[in-house]
Amino acid sequence: MRFGIYIGSRAGATCADPADPLRIGPLIDDLSGGQPFVIREYVRWCGGNTALEQQIGASGDLDHLTMPDDWYVTGGRELDLVLSYLPPVADLDGWLAFIDRALDRYGHLVRYLQVTLEPNFPIPHIDGSSPGVLAALTEGLPHARTRVSEGVQVGFSLAEPAEWLGGDDDFWRSLNAIPYADFAAHVDYVGLGLYPDGFSPHDDVHGATLHALGHLRHRLAEAHFPTGLPIHIAEAGSPSGAHRTPTGQVSSLTALIDASAAAGAAQFELFALSDADSAADSPLGTFGLCTGGYLPKPAYETYRSQIKAAPHQQRSRP
Question: What is the value of pTM for the model shown?
Answer without folding.
Answer: 0.96
